[in-house]
UniProtKB/TrEMBL annotation:
GO terms for biological process: carbohydrate metabolic process. It comes from Hymenobacter nivis. One of its GO terms (molecular function) is hydrolase activity, hydrolyzing O-glycosyl compounds. Pfam families: Glyco_hydro_2, Glyco_hydro_2_C. Keywords: Glycosidase, Hydrolase. Residues 217-318 form the Glycoside hydrolase family 2 immunoglobulin-like beta-sandwich domain. It comes from the Bacteria. This is Glycoside hydrolase family 2.
Amino acid sequence: MLPPAPNYGFSTLSHDPHLANPLPRAVVRDNNYLLLDGEWRFIIDYQDVGLNDDWCLGHAYDGIASWPGSVEEHMAAAKDQTHPAVWQDQVVAWYEREFRLPERDATDKHSLFQLTFGACGYETRVWLNGHLLQTIEGEDVHYGEYTSFSFELRPGLLQLVNRLTVRIAHTMDAETPRGKQESHVYKRGGIWYQTQTGAVRSVWLEMVERNRLRSRVSVDSVIEDRLVRFNLTTRIQDPGPYTLRLQVFERVDSAPAPLATADFPLRLAAGQREQRVVLELPGARLWQPGAPNLYRLVAQLIDQDGYAAQIEADFGLRKVESRGSRVYLNNAPVYLDGILYQPGTATYEEIRRHFYAMQALGCNLVRVHIAGIDPRLYALADELGLLLWVEVPSPHSSTPRSRQNHRAELLRMLALMQSHPSVVIWSLYNEDWGCQDIATNPDTRAYIVEMYHYMKINHPQFLVIDNDGWHHISDRGRLKSDLLTAHLYTPDLGRWQELLDRLVHGELDGTAAFPLVVGDPFFYRCQKPLIVSEWGGFGFSDYGGPADAEARTSSIRAFKHELRQRSIAGDVYTQATNIEDERNGLINFHTGALEVPAGVLASQPEVPAAGPHGK
């Protein structure tokens, strides 16, 4: 089954900073692409026989599925059901389609075809014309469902018309990173949601250079010196001498000349490696809420014949610190007016409307709750000046294998999210999910401490939280978290005042649902900023809060007032939109319209007037 003719040819990427990047990635490559979204042949492998029976060599598919989309939606459509299908334990799905190879310059010796999946999982195998492909990282099977992965396509495998076959397997395994999707441990209902997995983001074919920079950039600023440290990743087929050239431009269409440029000679072996380089940007404006100043990096890898492979990425200079009882942004104290955000099954356009609405509520911080989202939304937060708190989707059980999977997911996310000035906080775990034995198992605590130290050494541009909500780890009296966070839920204002008073007085027991600190004794003494990282939930029946908008608004204002009367560094209201059983949102899920007054979560009287169609 061939797609309609308009899908045969390459499309050209736009470099207009005011237009949305059509591909779900943050780093732009100066090339063309063929989007492979649309109708694919589809079948569920109920007996899991497809591998042994070589379905990759040819099989009769009995369904059609739209990619991107979830396996659950495709199963329901195949059975002519209205709602996503419910499945237990394991699902194995196969997808297949043909694509016509776009024309290319026959004299081009510098480029090759690359196939990229924006996200797909949890376990993905890909065949081209019956040949199993390996990812650039050398994987026959890609594990993970929240980040992109790519395949370089050897010329000998490509034909005029090509058959692409994908096998996706997913289980209810509690040891895999799942976030709030149901598992064998946590069943759907309450705060646990319908599983949505599989072919969840776009897939595309593009031309890339044989010797190039990969689409990943890490940015770390020393704002006092207007110094920017960039980490870039080279991918080399032909070893030899190269020049890495960096240019930084104002982020406007007509920027006539770079603000800074520098060349770095490199002798590169075949394979992949990271390289750190540094640029000075005298006079550069800092990035922060209310003044989201962005610059554009143009990075080129130039071979000895002068051929340049180029990528582009936006970035900003900013510094975030946990210092005493305050959070500092660019060396000035900042109060974090946050909101908990769970995108669920929202489309890109819906999430975009949510971001504008959260800013209109008066938020300067969005806590993206243990979920992977379209990376274009991180770029939107950069533009809007919204701080982001991101989290690793958690496994649901605490085992050596779950920790191995957790680490792998964290590293995959970090590789693709390090250029965004909006991302300021990372949570390793939330409320003991995936680390339920944190209070009793030294191995669990040792792993979390190890990853905290890894983050602080390798990614100093972020604040890091070990386990959000309670059960933070003390090691010889040092808290292994940059913030001391607590989840406090009560609909009663008097009880709320009592809990806040106990929190600021350093009472670690009896405030949140569990003790705030485990491990060695820890004495608060205003050493760390206090963040009430979940509160409210008004409208969710389990929390007993008021359901109607007027009562909800009144409670939010009263509770928020009490927060600002105390030495607390920030708060995160729960939550932005309704999702499944949690009916406590402030924003219409589909339209992005506010259901409470604008500015209700703001500590400051002025609220940004941004809208979904401009600043």
